[in-house]
UniProtKB/TrEMBL annotation:
One cellular component (GO) term of this entry: cytoplasm
Annotated protein name in UniProt: Putative pyridoxal-dependent aspartate 1-decarboxylase
Nuclease among keywords: no
Taxonomic lineage from the root: Bacteria, Pseudomonadati, Pseudomonadota, Gammaproteobacteria, Alteromonadales
Pfam families: Pyridoxal_deC
A single GO BP: carboxylic acid metabolic process
Gene name, Swiss-Prot/TrEMBL: panP
């Protein structure tokens, strides 16, 4: 990776590569009460309420030597150091944290800003999660480039509301441009297409939203309204409701097909849109955790035989649990054959399109009617930057809403085509990230993350007491700890033996993951899969996401070593494991 790009993500990599155990709280350094400017203060020894004081907190910034001033300076100069100083490594039980937030009364009197900031540092920041740590490899949240912090402050200070041009002005065409850039990344239309549609008042190439959940709901909202469109004698599902739509079109039910690895947001969508969670049909996956196309065809035919209608097929480009990608090209074929809306949930994997090396993994996504992408995942912007893109700019007509006081007909207000009304200008941060890092910079980040995942898989394969459960296709993989002699005999275990041993291994995996998390040295998550090689027995596994460019192979080796140490020092579980292995004939004696 180029040196300039690394500097964008962290000006002081040495701070981040220290063990998480050094993340002790040193609030006293930053939170001295002396010289802190006191807001809501009327020349008295305690905070008081007055209009003059209230006016001042709207017009006068905190002094540079105040608590907030020092925090802001520390954040801008050394974010990694601030997080390391203020986030406690050893986990505090949640029930104890809840005690700090148990008061339901709104404070009657104001508090000095300095005192309130101290409280936040001690109660909130100290017990937050250090998602920027290169040893935090358990979830899809990573380090942020430094330049986004002051830009985010600028965005908050401008306080634009993207529902309407009157409250956002230049932010509206900027957001439309970002949607055009992402649409071009996915669909690759000619430039004249974007010049014609990007700023069209009556059309939209997509919508920004808070995240993948709202993006997926929006896509299926379009699919539902398109399927049950207005006809003579029927005003449309948006007006008359789903029951009337089913009756008018002669269907007993409307269904959405998704792999069994589909995100839980799709269940929410089925609920919210009225089709019912029972009609979100989970299709079996193959041994590589990709949708089984033959099972999909059979499922679609069964729905038709039952008098139902397939409303949409949902392909996953980067499953949450294993990071795998459905056969999108073949799914597009099926969708075309049966006339169903084809949506791709690429909340995680969509950024892979920025890599010319790996974008072929998503072959077929360009045939999707709609695509979800989360910029706050592998595009390294703050949380709250989801997108849904539509191949046809006219699709948004299916969900169009107007109101005289805010989103009038003929205006270019973005709110007429979005589920959410008031929204912040997150597109500004995506716009900046795309320009500051560029496609080639993103390619470096994507490529190194996939390379690192493959290298970590190779490292695990070299260990006598660990085994890879799912190989990485993107930068996500799963594995588990298994004592070496148990691992050796499991290679030849029959189904009954595997079924007896797996529950105890699940207990061991859970113990190792929980203990490592509580120690604060590192974090991997865990999930439960039904791997082909384990006779589909529900198996608890470690789940790692290697998106942070500051994570090194040395750190990954240390994480394995800590897991091994925890596993070897779990006598109760190990005793039960070996006893069961002997009892079922895997071990002698």
């Amino acid at each position: 990776m180029s040196i300039p790009l690394l500097r964008l993500l962290n000006a002081n990599i040495r701070q981040q590569t220290s063990r998480c155990g050094s993340y002790k709280v040193t609030c006293a350094k930053v939170c001295a009460h002396a010289n802190s400017r006191r807001c809501l203060l009327s020349n008295s020894s305690a905070a008081d309420v007055s209009l003059d004081a209230l006016y001042r907190i709207f017009t006068i910034p905190e002094a540079p030597d105040s608590t907030l001033g020092r925090i802001e300076r520390h954040l801008s100069e050394n974010l990694a150091g601030f997080l390391s100083d203020h986030i406690v490594a050893k986990e505090k039980p949640l029930h104890e944290i809840e005690e700090d937030f148990a008061d339901s009364e709104i404070p009657e009197q104001p508090t000095f800003v300095s005192e309130h900031t101290d409280e936040l540092l001690n109660k909130l920041v100290a017990h937050s999660v250090h998602t920027a740590s290169p040893r935090f490899i358990g979830h899809m949240t990573s380090a942020l480039p430094y330049f986004l912090l002051p830009l985010a402050k600028l965005m908050v200070g401008l306080n634009q509301n993207l529902v309407k041009i009157e409250t956002s002005k230049a932010f509206t065409p900027l957001e439309r441009q970002v949607l055009g850039m992402m649409h071009h990344l996915v669909y690759g239309e000619q430039e004249k297409f974007y010049q014609h549609w990007m700023h069209s008042a009556e059309h939209s190439l997509g919508a920004f939203c808070s995240g993948g959940t709202v993006a997926n709901i929006t896509a299926l909202w379009v699919a539902r309204n398109k399927l049950f469109a207005a006809q003579p004698g029927f005003a449309g599902v948006a007006t008359e409701g789903l029951a009337a739509g089913l009756q008018h079109y002669g269907y007993k039910k409307a269904c959405v097909m998704v792999s069994e690895r589909g995100h839980y947001s799709l269940s929410k969508a089925a609920d919210v849109l009225g089709i019912g969670r029972a009609n979100l049909v989970a299709i079996a996956t193959d041994k590589n955790n990709r949708m089984d196309i033959e099972a999909l065809r059979k499922g679609c035919q069964q729905i038709a035989d039952e008098g139902g209608r397939v409303m949409a097929l949902v392909g996953i480009a980067g499953t949450t649990e294993t990071g795998h990608i459905d056969p999108l090209e073949k799914m597009a074929d099926v969708a075309a054959e049966i006339g169903a809306h084809f949506h791709v949930d690429a909340a995680w994997g969509g950024a892979t399109l920025l890599s010319s090396t790996h974008r072929g993994l998503l072959q077929g996504i360009e045939r999707a009617d709609s695509v979800t992408i989360d910029a706050h995942k592998q595009m390294y912007v703050p949380m709250g930057a989801g997108m849904v893109l539509f191949r046809d700019p006219a699709l948004v007509h299916a969900i169009e809403h107007h109101a005289e006081y805010v989103i009038r007909r003929g205006s270019k207000d973005l709110g007429s085509h979005t589920m959410e009304g008031s929204r912040p200008g997150m597109a500004m941060l995506v716009y900046s990230a795309l320009h500051v890092m560029g496609r080639r910079g993103y390619q470096l980040l994507i490529d190194q993350s996939i390379d690192k995942a493959q290298a970590f898989s190779a490292l695990i394969h070299q260990q006598p007491d660990f085994e890879v459960v799912t190989e990485p296709e993107l930068c996500l993989l799963t594995y588990r700890y298994v004592p070496a002699d148990i691992k050796e005999v499991l290679a030849n275990a029959n189904e009954e033996q595997m079924n007896r041993i797996t529950p105890i291994l699940n207990q061991l995996t859970k113990h190792v993951q929980k203990s490592q998390r509580e120690s604060g040295n590192a974090f991997v998550s865990r999930t439960k899969l039904t791997p082909h090689q384990y006779f589909h027995q529900p198996s608890t596994v470690f789940r790692t996401v290697l998106a942070n460019p500051l994570t090194t192979m040395q750190m990954l080796s240390e994480i394995l070593e800590e897991q091994r140490e925890i596993g070897e020092n779990a006598p109760h579980t190990l005793h039960a494991l070996y006893a069961e292995a002997r009892d079922c004939g895997l071990l002698s004696g």
